[in-house]
Amino acid sequence: xxxxxxxxxxxxxxxILISLGVASYFWVFLPILTVVVDYSRDKGIPxxxxxxx
Length: 53
What we know:
The chain is an all-alpha fold. The protein has one domain (1-43). The chain contains 2 helices and no strands. The chain has helices spanning 2-10, 13-42. It comes from Parasteatoda tepidariorum. The chain crosses the membrane at residues 14-37. This is Monocarboxylate transporter 12-B.
């Protein structure tokens, strides 16, 4: 019964859309933030100003 519920969950279109949204956030937005902070450190911007970029 529980295996059947898991299969039904993974076939649910709403679940797939939410999963794709979360995955795209982690694959696109977070690396961009990391690159911006790394670039600001390379340019010598003080750490307390990095949060404003």
